[in-house]
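Record format v2
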Amino acid sequence: MESHLSIDEVAKRTGLTAHTLRYYERIGLIAPVARAAGGQRRYAASDMAWIEFLLRLRTTHMPIGKMQTFAKLRSAGDRTVSDRRQMLEAHLTDVLANIEAMRQSAESLRVKIAYYRSFEQSLASNSNTDEGDVNETPKSLRARTRKTARNRR
Amino acid sequence: MESHLSIDEVAKRTGLTAHTLRYYERIGLIAPVARAAGGQRRYAASDMAWIEFLLRLRTTHMPIGKMQTFAKLRSAGDRTVSDRRQMLEAHLTDVLANIEAMRQSAESLRVKIAYYRSFEQSLASNSNTDEGDVNETPKSLRARTRKTARNRR
DNA sequence: CTAGAAGTTGGAGCGCGCTCCAAGTCAAGC
DNA sequence: GCTTGACTTGGAGCGCGCTCCAACTTCTAG
C-alpha cells in the first residue's frame, strides 16, 4: 500500500475531478484518505481500487445513496459480506434488465434509422421535380416499409 | 387516428405521470395535443407512437435537450429527415458504447459477487479473516479468528 | 342538481450529482 | 522574501428531470 498519489493525479487517472473526489469523501463514499504533512491527500493503491469499484457502480447507474449504504457496510467489516453480496446481486439483476432494455431500444433505433435512410433514398429520386437537387446518389428506390414509426414495448 | 385517450389513460399506458405528459408538451417534446370540448387532452394513436419513441430515447439516456432538438426537426417536416437520421446514428453509437461499458461493469460485479460468496464459505467453515474487500483473486481460503457468519441464502 | 373525481394552468419546489466559489494554507523556485 | 500554483475547507449554486401546489373548470355518477 503506497500512499503517494495526489488528488490531481487520482483525478487524472480516474476521470473524476478533484472536486468530485473530495465530495465523495465528504459524503462517506470514500473513507478518509491519508494526509501528507501539509494536510494534502495521499491516495493509496487500496483507495484507487475502491474508487474504481465505485466507478463501476456508477457506470451501472447505482444511485449514490446505495453506494453510501454499501460503503458503510464495507467499513463495518467482514460480518457484512453477506449483506454486501446481496446488495450486489440485487443491483446486478437491475443492471442486466437495464442492459436488455437498452439493447431493445437500440434495436428499434436501428430500425428507425434504416427507415429514414430508405425515405431519404425515395426523396432523392422523387423530389427532383420540385427543385434541383444538388447531390445524393439518385438511386430510385421507393420502398416504404409499411410501418411508420410505431413500435410497442 | 382516433383521438380519445385521456391524459390518465395515456399515463397508465406509458408509465409516465400525467404531470410528466403535460411537462413534455410544455417544453415542446410533444406537439400540442388535440382537446375535447372542455379543453381536456385527447391523445391520438400517432401521439402514442411518438411518446413511445420518446421513451425509447429516454431508455437509452438521450438528454431532454436533444430530444427537443429532434422533436423540432421532426415538426419541420421531411426535409429534416437526414438530420434526424444523423442524430439517431450518433446517438446509437453512444448507446452501444454505453451498453458495452455496462456489460463490462456487470461482469466485474459478477466476479466480485463470486468472491464474496467464496469468502462467505470460508467464514462459514472457519472463523474469519480480516477486512478483505480489495477484491480479486479469491486467495487461499484461510481464516484467522473471530466470529461466525450470520445469514446465508 | 350535487358531489366528487378528473382535468386545466402558471409557477414554485425538489432530489440528485455534482460544480464552483471564497478564503485560506503550504511547498517549491527565484 | 516573494510569487506561483497546488492544495485545503465550508458552503453556495446549478442543471436536469421531473413533481407538486394552488386555484380553478369540467365531466360523470347517482
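Chain A touches chain B through 46 residues (CB under 8 Å).
The helical segments of chain A are 7-14, 18-26, 45-59, 64-75, 81-126.
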